[in-house]
Design brief:
The complex is a heterotrimer of chains A (about 290), B (about 375) and C (about 325). Chain A has one domain (about 15-220). Chain A has eleven helices and two strands, in the order H-H-H-H-E-E-H-H-H-H-H-H-H. Chain A has helices spanning about 1-30, 40-55, 60-85, 90-110, 140-160, 160-170, 175-180, 185-210, 215-230, 235-255, 260-275; strands at about 130, 135. In chain A, strands 1-2 form a two-stranded antiparallel sheet. Chain A is globular and about 60 Å long. The termini of chain A are far apart. The relative contact order of chain B is 0.12. The longest helix of chain B is centred in the first third of the chain and has 20 residues, at about 40-55. Chain B is globular. Chain B is α/β, with parallel strands linked by helices. Chain B has 13 helices and 14 strands. Chain C has a two-stranded antiparallel ribbon. The two termini of chain C are about 20 Å apart. Classes of the chains: A mainly alpha (about 290), B alpha/beta (about 375), C mainly alpha (about 325). Chains in contact: A-B, A-C, B-C. Chains A and C meet through helix 4, helix 9 and helix 11 of A and helix 5, helix 10, helix 12 and helix 14 of C. Chain A: It comes from Alloyangia pacifica. Chain A: This is Branched-chain amino acid ABC transporter permease. Chain A: One of its GO terms (biological process) is amino acid transport. Chain A: It is a multi-pass membrane protein. Chain A: Pfam families: BPD_transp_2.
């Protein structure tokens, strides 16, 4: 029993990271139909910039804010410089553009900073909290709480605010959105900035647990992408559930079956879900326009 | 690609245009300065660039400067083979250092063997030098030696039953296999055998399995990069009361910082003299070479040295020594022969003596068993 | 594309392959040439999948991995000749593609991308984890094809570089010829119809799932043969060949050159194979420049390099 609980703690911690990345995917996808494979780099940037700002003498909260702001600006720049000029390009081209952008960001990061691994202190110490024979680190609670907070924030944003509804309207039909007076260009800018900020926020939360280096983004982007697709692309609820499920699958597989094939099981589950529900768990049905 | 482009590439890679009138010794390097093995290749590239500059400032070897061509193979064996071909055919180097990983080493190795160019590998696997290949040498200890060193220490502690948790990267997987092979010879029984991916964020499920396996007296974690730091933290989180052994893959001061001094307290691993440079006795054979390298690297890059940079340091020292003795910087065969005749060269990793039967030339004494105490390395012998 | 165009494409390709060595200053260029041909071969396969049929795959390196390891494993464990191992790999890849393609190809766009991605990751995971069989992440040796020594016995001495340049060049020509034939065949026309619109194609009687699957299987076989050639040529293989980045590289080559045409595919493969070799000039800026090139080409030449250049030459650029 305590073993199961331990596996779930681990799964929820890791899953919350995936969920945060997946939520970032969701926002950009909603606004522009683009799956941004550079999303993992935002997480990396959040961690790296915080590390170096912190080492330069800034207090940790301030360093984190600086990191989130800079990353957010980079997100906006990505949209202006690479995504907007390629509007209307096919899916493959967009995938290549965002993967190319992620290579650029990695290459620049290793030049500006370095190729070492880094870490900064946990927010509330490293003393594990004991629950029924299992343990969880305070930082894990920060990560899980962070993912939930971002989810709730996004839910309110998309359903209760006018701006959020404008984003959804843009996603549904760009031309129609423009016709009713929505500034779709601004919606795109907002989405990229917000998505990058969420990524960087994730980076700030997880660095004390997972460490950060210039190349941690790729794996996160893949897992986050998988989580988003599992939940159903474009749906914040799907991103959250998809991320947490993926994390728990991995942890339970590692705990009960085989640690070597834990990712394999996760992907087999995703394939299985997609075969039965081609739009993911919470995805909406879309029809092809002729 | 035009000839000018290649020429340009070579020149830029050299970085040394001064003294072009003099005769040059063309040295080729292909390491994984970026990619998943950048953890190994980055300090290796930096070390060799620094040492070449130093040597050329001091006047080179027998009055000839070293012209360095350094390529980054990104850890991809296919690229490594292309760069090895380029080094031999296009840059016409007389010796190659490189192959940060076993995979890239094996790719470079076949080119070196075919073309008769001496090659010093920086990777760990025993299969690189066993069986002995004419032109292939290596500087790091083998994984098998690391396992033997650890098991010897375990035996002395009365430990006979252990759990292993290894990274699935080349380094971790290779050492995992070697350790399983030699465990029996040291009376060690491996009761639990777990793995984790190189980018994993949490290893508590695997460690919980090990903890719930009855009779485990110690945990061994072969791996490099962030994995071992996370394992060390997870072990502390789960409140293990049995000792944790790490491999030489984490042997760098940065590791203690990443894992946290508290979590790493009491952890043991086989390391080189490089880690305890400040604690070596002045009459220690390695004192001079280790302190010189450590200080120069720190001054130049403002980073801590790692065992991996040390491997590159030793490979370069071996080449320089061989060319000096060969007296002919143009003939790869003469350099190979001189290399094989290396006798008692003191490096950061240990003291090298090659022979036709042994192209590693280190013994177990080159490893020192270290323990982390109050956030610092302490030799336990 | 007319029949005349087909022979022009093949002729240009054949001339390039035959004449380029005249300008090679050293043996290293044969190696790069052979790599370009191997990459181009798998990219021609993707042209059929992406360019003809309009489907996407982020997991084709998985098939390259199957082909490569077939050549490493079959000679050792089954006693097969390496050349037959290549065929075996192609068959296994084709069957595998047919099996997983059926359910996977019902998915669209990004969902198809993630499903193929998952397949590629599964293959690379098996290759990495089954250490006893595959040597794990460190990789394993691949037996020699034996053809070079046979030629030597017949009095034709070739360096390894020259030999593989020729072999890969010939295989690429054959692959290109088959792909160009497919383009004009009824099946090729059906594929291109469903690329435009699946619904429209279905209404005029195209068996959409069948044509998609056919394109998927054919492209898998191309990737597999390319993987085999790479393994045989290198004499050593690691799971990197099946990695995610290799899949991305293949797709990028296809789109970069111009995904609609076989010649464009070869061009894309050449660019992306040469780029890292040229970029060594920039040392640590290499990654940065590589990423920039990818982004800029996609933004400014969305049709890919070759079609855009061709259009400019014809003066039809708006």
């Amino acid at each position: 029993m305590d073993a199961l609980l331990q596996f779930l703690f681990s799964g929820l911690t890791v899953g919350a990271v995936y969920a945060l990345v997946a939520l970032g995917f969701t926002i950009i996808y909603n606004a522009s139909d683009v799956v941004n494979f550079a999303q993992g780099e935002f997480v990396m940037l959040g961690g790296m910039i915080t590390v170096f700002a912190f080492e330069a003498g800034l207090p940790l909260p301030l360093a984190a804010v600086v990191a989130i702001l800079i990353t957010s600006a980079i997100g906006v720049a990505l949209n202006k410089l690479a995504i907007e000029p390629a509007r209307g390009a096919p899916v493959v081209s967009l995938i290549i553009i965002t993967i190319g952008a992620s290579i650029v960001i990695r290459g620049a990061t290793q030049l500006v900073f370095d190729k070492q691994l880094h870490r900064f202190p946990s927010f509330s110490g490293d003393d594990p909290i004991h629950v029924l024979g299992a343990t969880i680190l305070p930082q894990s609670l920060w990560v899980i709480g962070g993912a939930l907070a971002v989810f709730v924030g996004l839910w309110i944003f998309f359903t209760l605010t006018l701006t959020g509804k404008a984003v959804l309207a843009t996603a549904n039909n760009r031309v129609a959105a423009q016709l009713v007076g929505i500034n779709t260009g601004w919606v795109m800018t907002l989405s990229f900035g917000l998505s990058a900020a969420i990524g960087a926020f994730a980076g700030v939360l997880v660095t004390p647990i997972t460490l950060v280096g210039y190349d941690v983004g790729v794996a996160l982007a893949l897992k986050g992408f998988a989580a988003a697709m599992l939940g159903g692309m474009g749906n914040p609820k799907g991103a959250l559930v998809g991320g947490l499920l993926l994390g728990c699958f991995e942890a339970l597989t590692a705990g009960y079956l085989s640690s070597q094939y834990k990712e394999a099981v996760a992907f087999i589950v995703i394939l299985g879900v997609l075969f039965v529900m081609p739009q993911g768990l919470f995805g909406s049905k879309s029809t092809e326009r002729v | 690609m035009s000839k000018t482009t290649t020429a340009l590439a070579t020149f830029a890679a050299l970085g040394v245009l001064a003294g072009a009138a003099q005769a040059e010794i063309r040295l080729g390097v292909s390491v994984s300065a970026t990619g998943p093995a950048a953890f190994l290749g980055d300090p290796e590239a930096k070390t060799i660039e620094m040492l070449v500059e130093q040597l050329n400032e001091e006047g080179g070897i027998n009055g000839e400067e070293i012209a360095l061509t350094l390529y980054d193979d990104g850890g991809d064996p296919n690229k490594a083979r292309t760069f090895a071909t380029r080094l031999v055919e296009d840059d016409e180097v007389v010796a190659i250092i490189g192959g940060s990983t076993t995979g890239t080493t094996m790719s470079i190795l076949s080119v070196a063997e075919d073309e008769g160019i001496p090659f010093i590998s920086l990777a760990g696997a025993i299969s690189i030098i066993d069986p002995v290949r004419e032109y292939v040498f290596k500087t790091p200890h083998t994984d098998r030696m690391a396992c033997e060193k650890i098991f010897t220490d375990m035996q002395a502690q009365g430990i006979t039953k252990i759990g292993m948790i290894s990274g699935t990267d080349g380094f971790g997987a290779s050492m995992q296999a070697q350790c399983k092979e030699v465990a029996g010879e040291h009376g060690i029984e491996i009761l639990a055998d777990e793995t984790y991916g190189p980018q994993d964020a949490d290893m508590t499920p695997q460690l919980t399995r090990i903890r719930n396996t009855g009779g485990v007296q110690a945990v061994l974690n072969p791996g490099f990069g962030q994995g071992p730091a996370i394992v060390t933290r997870n072990v502390a989180q789960l409140g293990f009361e049995i000792p944790l052994y790490q491999s030489h893959g984490v042997a760098s001061d940065a590791f203690i910082e990443l894992a946290g001094a508290e979590a790493a307290e009491g952890l043991r691993l086989p390391g080189t003299a490089l880690l305890i440079a400040d604690k070596l006795a002045e009459d220690d054979a390695q004192y001079e070479v280790v302190t010189t390298y450590t200080e120069a690297y720190k001054a130049r890059y403002d980073q801590e040295v790692s065992t991996f940079g040390g491997y590159a340091h030793d490979a370069f020292a071996l080449i320089v020594d061989a060319i000096t003795r060969a007296g002919d910087s143009e003939d790869p065969q003469a350099i190979r022969d001189a290399l094989e005749a290396t006798d008692g060269l003191v490096g950061t990793t240990g003291t090298y003596s090659f022979s036709p039967e042994d192209h590693l030339g280190l013994d177990l004494s080159a490893f020192r068993m270290l323990e982390i105490k109050d956030g610092d390395w302490l030799p336990v012998e | 594309m007319t029949g005349r165009n087909k022979w022009i494409s093949l002729g240009v390709l054949a001339l390039l392959i035959a004449l380029l060595p005249l300008f090679f200053p050293s043996g290293y260029y044969y190696r790069v040439g052979a790599l370009i041909f191997v990459n181009a071969l798998s990219v021609v396969g993707l042209v059929i999948l992406i360019g003809y049929a309009g489907q996407i795959s982020l997991g084709h390196a998985g098939f390259a991995g199957i082909g490569a390891y077939a050549c490493a494993l079959a000679p050792e464990h089954l006693g097969l000749h390496p050349a037959l191992a290549l065929v075996l790999g192609a068959v296994v890849s084709g069957v595998m593609a047919a099996l997983i393609g059926k359910p996977i190809l019902r998915l669209k766009g990004y969902y198809l991308a993630v499903a193929t991605l998952g397949f590629g990751i599964l293959v690379s995971m098996v290759l990495t984890n089954e250490r006893g069989l595959t040597g794990g992440p460190d990789g394993m040796n691949v037996a020699d094809l034996g053809l070079r020594s046979l030629l030597r016995d017949m009095g034709w001495r070739l360096s390894g570089g020259e030999f593989w340049y020729m072999v890969c060049g010939v295989v690429l020509l054959v692959g290109a010829w088959l792909a160009l034939n497919l383009f004009d065949s009824p099946s090729g026309r059906a594929m291109r119809a469903l690329h435009g619109s699946e619904v429209a194609a279905a209404t005029v009687g195209v068996d959409v799932p069948r044509q998609k699957l056919r394109a998927f299987v054919i492209s898998a076989v191309y990737a597999s043969v390319a993987g085999s050639l790479l393994a045989l040529q290198n004499g050593y293989i690691t799971p990197d060949v099946a990695g995610f980045m290799h899949s991305v590289e293949m797709v990028t080559m296809a789109v970069l050159g111009g995904v609609g045409s076989v010649l464009g595919a070869t061009f894309g493969a050449a660019i992306l194979t040469l780029l890292p070799q040229v970029l060594t000039v920039f040392a640590e800026y290499e990654q940065l420049v590589l990423g920039l090139v990818m982004v800029l080409v996609m933004i400014f030449l969305p049709q890919g390099l070759l079609p855009s250049i061709a259009r400019r030459l014809k003066g039809r650029d708006e």
